[in-house]
Amino acid sequence: xxxxxxxxxxxxxxxxxxxxxxxxxxxxxxxxxxxxxxxxxxxxxxxxxxxxxxxxxxxxxxxxxxxxxxxxxxxxxxxxxxxxxxxxxxxxxxxxxxxxxxxxxxxxxxxxxxxxxxxxxxxxxxxxxxxxxxxxxxxxxxxxxxxxxxxxxxxxxxxxxxxxxxxxxxxxxxxxxxxxxxxxxxxxxxxxxxxxxxxxxxxxxxxxxxxxxxxxxxxxxxxxxxxxxxxxxxxxxxxxxxxxxxxxxxxxxxxxxxxxxxxxxxxxxxxxxxxxxxxxxxxxxxxxxxxxxxxxxxxxxxxxxxxxxxxxxxxx
Length: 316
Description:
By secondary structure, this protein is mainly alpha-helical. The chain contains 16 helices and two strands.
């Protein structure tokens, strides 16, 4: 009996067309995300031309005259810009160093819980703050720290007798308050991806380590952490790329003239120079935004390269 020979594969064009026809629903689902990225991510890139051209209202969206690097030289010579730049890097670095490990530790500890009911309860409670509006979070913070009716000031005054302090107005408390509220609001939500990575670890590895006499701490250190390290490095690279783009809404809501020496970051500086200014400098603000984007690209590329060289893990 002769063995049937396999028929030659169809042409690539025909195969792709047939695949598209058979799975057109999947491509249809991509239309909205594709439209989102085109309209809100790629189309606005054309506005970066204003960083090199002078803009005047009612004269077109791309400026009226070529100015070259004038606006870059202008903001690079401004002390206010460098103060905002330092504030952005300082707050972002502190937030990264303190808050980046928290979801990892939380996910590992949550995975170690034996009671499934208690584990679900903790997960639910930790996820809820992510769905609270930033405006509501800052409003709650202002109520808790109010010098007249705040709970914290009342407790401190009853215990120590010290006069109330308006913490939201003090520059020394701005960064700790920002970092702590970020930790409360996003740690539980960020832990989801690490929990998913831990769940994907082969249970036989833990069983073999348990048979060999490994403690729970040793299993975490030698199995859990090395296994989820690719996920950790990818998340770290993405976080580094956002060093110059903090949560603009929260900073703006917590911003006061008294704490502006530490709360004025690049995003709020751009906002004050453009939308909030009596004489908006759109080309100047665009140049600052383009500069921040280039720095972010350099940071992502550098951290990706270092991660690939040191750990073998990278995004690309």
